[in-house]
UniProtKB/TrEMBL annotation:
InterPro entries assigned to the protein according to its UniProt record, in alphabetical order: NAD(P)-bd_dom_sf, ODC_Mu_crystall, ODC_N
Name of the protein described by the UniProt record: Ornithine cyclodeaminase
Classification lineage: Bacteria, Pseudomonadati, Pseudomonadota, Gammaproteobacteria, Pseudomonadales
UniProt organism field: Pseudomonas reactans
Domain of life according to the entry: Bacteria
Length: 321
């Protein structure tokens, strides 16, 4: 059996941000319309050193292929001179089960689709006037969110908070060199003092955002809680929110911020709406300027399917040199 293996440079050569945003948005909508067949994600959690491995698989009803994706994150890798993320995608024929291609993306496709989803979710619930974008986290995804969301929101002002102040300083310096007006915040409360859109992207296992920090009109995109045991928000924030958007209700109720609020009895299983319905324009992301809104993201197989299909199609359509 022979099949092509496409490397990270192959993928980088054909994929653009605008395409990633488009197909990630479409994937969220397709998921909300029950057009995706997928299972709950599998995961392996590691403690020494800390890390995780996620497995997602699924297909679009009527689609030509199905996708199995592995994505890893090992958080001490940068101290060893290694990238935090790794992974690959396997693309199979949905008619024969034959392996069509391997996308050896080293975790890059997952990184970009996550960045696109975060930016889209930030826009979906953002107030009409964005004062500044706040990022809680200092890792690779924090950097991606700063770029993608700031561009989509139309603001160059970014505030960075991290549990390690030195990492926050280094990220701010990097973002400043890349054209953003970035500065550090000494505390989480300082971020919310300056920013009415805040994205959380840490591997925290306990709440780092107190409900007391959240002001009327704030929109929060919570991305870090994508595995059992992770948490970034005080569950009271979800009880306070006028709108809660989830990428997938069942996943968020099991492993997202929604899960902590449900277990605490602060909200009901009908408290959230689908992010896909908001992106499609069927439901509002906020109803007034003073609404507190939350987007809870755990990642979708639909996004992996869409991006793998896009990448494969673009590569195959590119003439060989």
């Amino acid at each position: 059996m022979t099949f092509p293996i496409y490397s990270l440079p192959d993928l980088r050569a054909v994929l653009k941000r605008s395409d990633m945003l488009r197909v990630t948005r479409d994937a969220c909508i397709q998921h909300s319309q029950n057009n995706i067949v997928s299972t709950m994600p599998g995961e392996l959690l590691f403690q020494a050193p800390p890390g995780d491995c996620h497995v997602r698989l699924g297909y679009l009803r009527g689609g030509e292929t199905f996708v199995v994706k592995l994505a890893m994150g090992f958080y001490e890798n940068p101290s060893r001179g290694l990238e935090t993320n790794n992974g690959l995608m396997l693309v199979f024929s949905s008619h024969t089960g034959k392996l069509v291609a391997i996308l050896n993306d080293e975790g890059w496709l997952t990184s970009w689709r996550t960045a696109a989803a975060g930016a889209l979710a930030a826009k979906a619930g953002a107030p009409s006037q964005v004062t500044a974008l706040g990022i809680l986290g200092t890792g690779h995804q924090a950097e991606q969110q700063a770029h993608w969301a700031a561009q989509l929101l139309g603001t160059p002002r970014v505030f960075i908070w991290g549990r390690d102040p030195n990492k926050a300083i280094r990220l701010v310096e990097k973002l400043a060199h890349q054209g953003l007006t970035a500065q550090t915040a000494a505390t989480v409360e300082d971020v919310f003092e300056h920013c009415n859109v805040v994205i959380t992207c840490t591997p925290s296992t306990q709440a780092i955002v107190p409900v007391s920090a959240v002001k009327p009109g704030t929109h929060i995109v919570a991305m870090g809680a994508d595995s059992q045991g992770k948490q970034e928000l005080d569950p009271q924030i979800l009880a306070l929110a006028q709108v809660i958007m989830t990428d997938d209700h069942q996943q968020c109720a099991e492993r997202g911020e929604l899960a902590h609020a449900l277990r605490a009895g602060l909200i009901t299983h009908t408290a959230d709406i689908s992010l896909g319905h908001v992106l499609a324009g069927n439901l509002p992301g906020r109803t007034s300027a003073d609404d507190v809104t939350v987007a809870d993201l755990t990642g979708l197989a639909a996004q992996d399917i869409a991006i793998a299909s896009l990448a494969l199609g673009l590569i195959q359509a590119t003439p060989s040199p």
